[in-house]
Amino acid sequence: MDIFGGIEKLITEHGSAAILKERLLLVADKYAELEKSLVMSQTKAKDAISEKNNFELENIKLRDELRCVNEQLLKIHENPLTSKFGILWDKHGNAQCPKCKTTINRVVWATHINGQVPSLKCSCAIDPIVLMEAGQPIQAPDAMRFMANS
């Protein structure tokens, strides 16, 4: 019976080896899946960190922009503008460019309905600004004197 015991032992060990091999292959597959999942998670984490950094930079830019807008609003409240002759004027009688919001003091000739009229010209604009009162052009120097004395 010793021979049958050896054969039985051989069959048991061979069967155990086959089962063990299958289990090792299953573990190796699961390990490969986990490694792939880890790499994907690390990639997503890097993307999230990058997006977070971009949001932080955008936040800083927006805060700076908001600060500038608030400063401009304070300046406007300190120096209220008046609308007259088709443009805005500050309290000192200085014309303000409607495009860049800076003071305009350059007077140039402009054509208005077959006539030349002294008008205001800002460096940011291509065309001069013809000042109007009651549908008629008004000369820029006259408007500037009127607003300075108001």
Share of helix, binned: 55-70%
Radius of gyration: 41 Å
**Strand line-up across the major sheet:** 1-2-3-4
The amount of beta strand, in percent, is 15-25%
Number of strands: 8
Unreliable sequence segments = none
* Tally of separate helices: 2
Mass-distribution shape? rod-shaped
Number of domains: 2
The helix/strand series, from N terminus to C terminus, equals: HEEEEEEEEH
End-to-end Cα distance: 128 Å
Oligomer: single chain
Structural class: alpha+beta
Calculate the mean pLDDT score and round it. Answer: 83
Main β sheet profile: 4 strands, antiparallel
Descriptive notes:
The relative contact order is 0.08. The protein has 150 residues and is α+β, with helices and mostly antiparallel strands. The protein folds into 2 domains: 1-78; 82-149, no CATH class. A 4-stranded antiparallel sheet has the order 1-2-3-4, with no helix packed on it. It has helices spanning 2-78, 140-149; strands at 82-84, 87-89, 95-96, 103-104, 106-112, 115-121, 131-133, 136-138. The N and C termini lie far apart (128 Å). The radius of gyration is 41 Å and the shape is rod-shaped.
